[in-house]
Design a protein that fits this description.
The structure is a single chain. The chain is of the alpha+beta class and 99 residues long. It has a domain of 38 residues. 26% of the residues lie in helices and 15% in strands. Strands 3-2-1-4 form a 4-stranded mixed beta sheet, covered by helices on one side. The chain is elongated. The chain contains 2 helices and 4 strands; from the N terminus they run αβββαβ. InterPro entries: ExbD. This is Biopolymer transporter ExbD. Belongs to the ExbD/TolR family. It comes from Paracoccus liaowanqingii. Keywords: Cell membrane, Membrane, Protein transport, Transmembrane, Transmembrane helix, Transport.
């Protein structure tokens, strides 16, 4: 006697590949998104008309106690070093938030 097996129900399409694609897109957009605060109004940055690239600006550091540091100069020697630098290159100031 031969017993026939009941016919199998067809399986539906698997949605796992679609879920994988969605997560890959989510990761892609999270990694490529700009995470910065927008400007409060539109700005047009200036164009450079120089043939040479600008170097990194010199940085004047100011500690929470008011100590100054610039290049190799520390303390009051910073003022003399800055006076020799005036008008030649930009100087960036980085101060402690406690000031």
């Amino acid at each position: 006697m031969r017993i026939d097996m009941p016919p199998r129900k067809p399986r539906g399409e698997s949605i796992i590949p679609m879920i994988n694609v969605v997560f890959l897109l989510l990761i892609f957009f999270l990694l490529t998104a700009q995470i910065s605060q927008p400007t409060p109004f539109p700005l047009t940055p200036p164009d450079s008309r120089s043939d040479t690239a600008a170097g990194a600006p010199d940085v004047l550091y100011v500690s929470a106690q008011g100590e100054l540091a610039w290049n190799a100069a520390r303390g009051e020697a910073v003022w003399a070093a800055l006076a020799a630098q005036v008008g030649t290159d930009p100087v960036e100031i980085r101060a402690d938030a406690a000031l």
